[in-house]
């Protein structure tokens, strides 16, 4: 099969084509696994973290990609829940402990990091970690929901928001533009304010029903009960804390923060930003349940992610465009 593999980590500007297109053996499913023919795979910021070594895969080369949608083409001997031809998705959780907090378990294995992922024509996954894709979602629309959408759903739950309380979204990329309609569906009376540096993205947020949009350091119409930060930078953390109500919560939904503007943290003032029981919480990984709950919700809303398509072989270009921020919505590899 054809696959785009990462064999060496380096900054993207030093190595602008980080992935190589190779021919490799099609994997064979173990007795509890499905072999999936990949139809589409979303391109996530986490791939940049892996490529640049902030989140180093334990073994190289590795096939990246954890927003996978495809069709089952072969089942291991003990598989009972799926059959050949079923359309399934695989997210960041490839397998784990199966407990309620499996996202935090030492057994957690990440798709496209600890095991080969979806930047390839085929991949395998345990059946317990595959999710049926609702019929109303196309392959390429469902792909970004597997990570950006599902983890956005988890982040939203971790805010502890109650309907009517004001919510902020710091950053508006692959995850933010899916969280906004999800928030509007779950909390119909909560105003949602979006913070992002790019004015065209601010406008895009308002087209998607944000109640207001402004720059990272803009002052929103009212203090916020909760903010979800999906940016890779530190300034947005300090700026978010300024915008919270007393008792408000910042939920950071980013696997790694980059170091470029880490000095911004020195501007964090205890009195201005933390005092009055303001809190910061991170989101780590996903449980199978998060994805299994979120996909039917996405179909019901209905969520229709804005996607830009690339062939598998152009994954490097998709990654460079993601780095430059030159996308509206999500980048997706159309594999087959
Ligand atoms: Zn992701």
Name its key features.
25% helix; binds zinc ion; alpha/beta; six-stranded parallel beta sheet; 336 residues; Quinone Oxidoreductase, Chain A, domain 1; globular; 8 helices; Rossmann fold; seven-stranded mixed beta sheet
Characterization of the model:
Its EC number is 1.1.1.1. InterPro entries: ADH-like_N (IPR013154), ADH_Zn_CS (IPR002328), ADH_Zn_typ-2 (IPR014187), ER (IPR020843), GroES-like_sf (IPR011032), NAD(P)-bd_dom_sf (IPR036291). By secondary structure, the protein is α/β, with parallel strands linked by helices. It folds into two domains: 2-133 and 306-334, Quinone Oxidoreductase, Chain A, domain 1 (Alpha-Beta Complex); 150-282, 3-Layer(aba) Sandwich (Rossmann fold), CATH 3.40.50.720. Helix content is 25%, strand content 26%. It is built from eight helices and 18 strands. The strands form four sheets. Strands 3, 5, 6, 9, 10, 17 and 18 form a seven-stranded mixed sheet that branches. Strand 15 (244-252), helix 6 (270-274) and strand 16 (279-282) form a beta-alpha-beta unit. Helix 2 (139-158) packs across helix 7. The termini are close together. Zinc ion (ZN) binds at residues 44, 46, 66, 92, 147.
Summarize the structure.
The protein is an alpha/beta fold and 336 residues long. Helix content is 25%, strand content 26%.
List segments where confidence is low: pLDDT < 50 over at least 5 consecutive residues.
Answer: none
Structural class: alpha/beta
- What is the level-2 CATH architecture name of the largest domain? Alpha-Beta Complex
Looking at CATH, the homologous superfamily of the largest domain is Medium-chain alcohol dehydrogenases, catalytic domain
- For the record, the count of structural domains works out to 2
Proportion of residues in helical segments: 25-40%
Distance between the termini: 12 Å
Tell me, rounded to a whole number, the average pLDDT. 95
What's the alpha carbon Rg, rounded to whole Å?
19 Å
- By CATH reckoning, the class of the largest domain would read Alpha Beta
In CATH, the topology of the largest domain is named Quinone Oxidoreductase, Chain A, domain 1
In total, how many beta strands? 18
- Please write the string of helix (H) and strand (E) elements: EEEHEEEEEEEHEHEHEEHEHEHEHE
Q: Hetero groups bound? A: zinc ion
Largest sheet: 7 strands, mixed
Strand content: 25-35%
Alpha plus pi helix count: 8
